[in-house]
Specification:
The protein is built from eleven helices and twelve strands. It is elongated and about 100 Å long. 52% of the residues lie in helices and 18% in strands. The protein is α/β, with parallel strands linked by helices and 348 residues long. Helix 1 runs antiparallel to helix 11. The structure holds beta-D-fructofuranose.
Amino acid sequence: MLKTTIQLISLSWLLTCLACFQQKPAKKYTVGFSQCCKDDWRTVMENEMLRELDFYPAVALKKKVAVGNSQQQIAQIKELVAEGIDILIVAPNETEPLTEIIETVYQEGIPVILVDRETASNQYTTYVGASNYEIGRTAGHYIASQTDKTGKIIELALPQSMTPGVGRRNGFEDAIKQYPNLEVIAFFDASWSLDKVDVWLPDVLDQHPEANIIYGHTDVVAERAYQVIRKKGKANQFFYLGIDGLAGKGGGIQMVEDGRINASLLYPTGGTESIKAAMQILNNLPIEKRIELNTTVIDPDNARIINRQMEKVLNLQENIGQQKNLISELEQFYQNQQVLIYILIGSL
Ligand code: FRU
């Protein structure tokens, strides 16, 4: 009888130990992330977030991507809230359509971090991103400094239904007001479809043979203009400025290095900073209403060095990822050993 009881106790003790060692640590918080769209710049943002999240194993990320469709994004935010999130990070596709749902989430007591794009309301916890107005202003002054303060500009803008489109336009306008010989002669809401640039720009070039500056609200659109103008045999007549300054293959820094655009203004994605902000809020630490990120001009003098440095940083980050995997494997191995030891002790 005693022997059986001891055996039963040992067995239940053994099973409890096994259960303990097999359990993964429970996630304490869930960060909901509503991403407006899908492109290379967004991928960089998401990778930054994932890398930063590596430091917080108790935090889970739930992401939903609306492919440039505001109604879809509204539905996805509702889904995230229904599924249960502790905080919402959101890059609103457009200003007006997303305002109401984001206000509702905030009023329900879920902290809201706006990243990159803003709403028409101040009902959010914090905004993370560069000032698009300042970027527009910097673009205007930079163009003036590179073109003898004289020129006819074609502006290829982001849609005016989103805050970066408005900020980049207004800041630029305010800057070039100070240069009487700099003038925007054609304005195009370009980004819904780059293909539209191929149709629109050739006619504008015919109507304005004096045009000599491209101000693109993104590098991608500035480079598209370069391709169109090159086909017309006028590539060297123009100065091309874009925004984003993404590192790596196909990014704006590479475009500057290759001479397809003359310069780009860095527009940081805010991926890392938005996760940092989320952790600050979840830990009840004070946070500012705006976390402004800095920009910088990328031109042929620094493009190469910045690209190489970014490559190095990416390699280091990949190394960190590999080391993290290795540590997980070792932890698993250690756990298996523990289990084995318990089995041995139990059977003894
Ligand atoms: C990417 C993008 C960037 C731009 C940002 C503005 O989706 O269009 O090119 O800088 O969004 O919100």
